[in-house]
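Researcher: I'm preparing a figure for a lab meeting and need a structural model of a single chain. I don't have an experimental structure, so a prediction will have to do for now. The sequence is pasted below. Please return the structure as tokens so I can convert it later.
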Amino acid sequence: MNQQQILEQLKTLATETINQNSINIDILPTIEKLKIINEEDHKVAEAIGQELPVIAKAVDAITQSMKQGGRLIYVGAGTSGRLGILDAVECPPTYGVDYNTVVGLIAGGKEAFIKAQEGIEDQESAGFADLKEITLTEKDIVCGIAASGRTPYVIGGLKYANSIGCTTIAIACNKNSVISNYADIKIEISPGPEVISGSTRMKAGTAQKLILNMLSTTAMINLGKVYKNLMVDVKTSNEKLQARAKKIIMEATEVDFTTASEYLELAHNHVKSAIVMIINNCSYEEAQKKLDKAHGVIRKIA
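Model: Understood. Here is the structure written out token by token.
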């Protein structure tokens, strides 16, 4: 596709159109600039609210994939790729999953996270190659992210994922996006034109971040990594997380700090086991058996 064709394609995208509400933002006082940005940001959550049924479908697919040992793999370029990586790297400390459970791939590789590698996103073959390098299997689920909905790198990744039988998800910030043509589940949010024309790290980026939060968080809840609204599989890898773990035990079981600390030590720093030990007045070994039988879901333990 040549530049003229790309230009014509961009003209059809809501994310690339001029926002009439901010047409004179460059000459407004600072407070008025901020008001416009804030007012436009409010539209993002509303747009996402209209797509909750299809987001739910994506969450259920992710949950099912993970139950079978599959991975959630985000594929994106630029801001979209960085947001996928951000969501992926937060899952292990928050929910105790392996760093290979949620994976973020960005066009241009790790270097592109801190320094733009824009040319790579134009190569479908790069998306194909990056997924092949991590040994994609049909158990995995691939989520392509592109604000424009037309990024070749993402299209290449989705095509490859489809070719080996993966379930595929597309997240775009334009309706009738190109990447949706290559996905089983199509999440298309329409937050409208950006305050700064074409700066899709703004409303489109916010929309993508909120959706990724929903996908990973709700899947982890479905997998039993949340009890009530507490992240009971949190890793106790630093002082702050140690304190948070004890706070979670206290809130889940209504014990005091000293008791929570004692049980956390007895449970070898495994928060979920400590909670089960307290609730069921049992040993660590018994708690492990109960959790195994309930597939790690505290609510299922009688």
